[in-house]
Amino acid sequence: MLNEFGIRVICMALYIVAAPLLGGLLDGLDRKISARMQGRKGPSILQPFYDVAKLTQKQLLSVNRFQLLMVMSYLFFVIMSGVLFFGGFDMLLCFFSLSTAEMFLILASTSTHSPFSTIGTHREMAQMMAYEPMILLTAVGFYLAAGTFQVSDIIEGTTPIILYAPGFFAGFVFVLSIKLRKSPFDLSTTHHAHQEVVKGVTTEMVGVEYALTTVTEWYENIFLFGVIGLFFVTANPLSFIGAIAAVLVVFFLEILIDNTSARVKWQMMLKMAWGVTIVTGGLNLFILELIKR
To answer: DSSP letter string over the chain?
Structure first.
């Protein structure tokens, strides 16, 4: 039988190999469902893979070498976040690594000196201000509910975390729309080319650079959905079925919100995100503190 170290290595390797495949399929499914909601047929579910393959064949016309380095660093730290998470390590370290990755994306965008990239960068930083408090509170919620930041110890519990932390779950799902850059919070970049910021932080990224950014987003999405699933996973193997079902429900909900909401201003985004963080996360934190005493 495999020991704990062997299982961790397998899980980390599976994430590195399978995450971009699964992330690409989810991206294609997102496009298909969105198209059906809008009365269109939509592209093939495999279209995201065709797009990335086409990007890799284009000539690399980077504004400067620094941008390519920052994009590669962005990819590295996002993969590191997922590897640490699915390897069962400290959740706080996972989120800190994800925040570091976001900073490299911002540096890659600002290095171009493009006005569209600059606008997108400013909005990206505003989005970070909006979602970071709730993400950090989510890690605290897991600690208060399970008594540890270690993902491997959390999944060994007998009671799903969602029963102790419904407020943290609701808050995390809310800011997930910001992390996924979906309407009404697709301020810094958008999947729709007709928006006023064009492609925001990725405006000046072409060819391999944009392909790497797209694949990085797939890695990041799988990590974020993994956090959603962690709310439902316990030592019971059947709990993984419930976790997958919860992830699919949240995935569909995000698509529904994206197709039924208009973009808001960054001021409104901050008010909404911080308001939800205080109400859901703060109230749940207060209740957990009372329970632990």
So the answer is: ---HHHHHHHHHHHHHHHHHHHHHHHHHHHHHHHHHHTT-----TTHHHHHHHHHHTS----S-HHHHHHHHHHHHHHHHHHHHHHTT-BHHHHHHHHHHHHHHHHHHHHTT--HHHHHHHHHHHHHHHHHHHHHHHHHHHHHHHHS-SBHHHHTT-SS-GGGT-HHHHHHHHHHHHHHTT-TTS--S--S-TTSTTTTGGGTT--HHHHHHHHHHHHHHHHHHHHHHHHTT--SSTTHHHHHHHHHHHHHHHHHHHHHH-----HHHHHHHHHHHIIIIIIHHHHHHHHHH-
Band of residue 195 on the pLDDT scale cut at 50, 70, 90 = low
Is the pLDDT assigned to residue 131 strictly greater than 60?
A: yes
List, for residues 145-159, the tens digit of each pLDDT value.
998 999 999 999 899
Residue with tokens 């171009």: 112
- pLDDT of 120 > 90? The answer is no
The domains of the chain are located at 4-292
Structure-token match 């007709």, residue found: 194
Report yes or no: 81 and 98 within 8 Å, Cβ to Cβ: yes
> pLDDT tens for residues 207-230?
888 899 999 999 999 999 999 999
C-beta neighbour count of 66 within 10 angstroms: 14
Residues 104, 180, 136, 81: is their CA dihedral positive or negative? negative
Question: Residue 78 — φ and ψ, nearest 5°?
Answer: -70, -45
- 54: tokens are 């086409």
